[in-house]
Specification:
It is a single chain. By secondary structure, this protein is mainly alpha-helical. The chain has one domain. It is 85% helix and 0% strand.
Length: 221
Amino acid sequence: MSARALFARELRLAFAGGGGPAGPAAFNLAALALAPLAIGPDTATLAAAGPGVITFAALLASLQGAERLFGDDAGDGTLELYALSGLSLSMAALIKALAFTIAVFWPAPLLAGLGGLAYGLTLEASLVLAAGIALAAPGLVFIAAFAGALAAGLRRAGLLIALIAAPLQAPLLVGAAGAARAAMDGTGLAGPNLMLALAASLIAGVLAPLGAGAALRARLD
């Protein structure tokens, strides 16, 4: 199987089997809608908490479909076919994560921008937050894919995936939320925080597929 064929297959499966972006987007919206019930209606409090809440909602949305990234492949023999296809398992993991990001996770920056406006952030801060989530999104999915590979085939893998992935995703959230807060406060540090999110995403894009490939190879052995 070529890389292009695998990418096309994963795009089709993301829509046919998982409903495309509907599930993670609904999960993201639910988190954004329910958080003010705990925070309270005060406008200043909502605006102060907004960047953190919105980025955390994006993290939860990235984990929503992580279990099925490799869970079905581990159960139906597809992993063995990947190993025999000529593609490395690390490359297969990278392609699957990219397809998931493009097919499923693309609404996250839009929801972040709209959520920022709903929480009382300025337009500039909301746009910066959307840009931060756009830069962090691939890294969030790469790390979720790594955790999904470690937990592939295990029962009730969702909790294990969250425990593995969430701490590793923290730098991405710090960069995206910090950029929005800097834009609100006018400190001039929005750009450096966006670069932090981008750097963390690039590092995850390099290391997470390698780790996922190693985890999948260990499972086959």
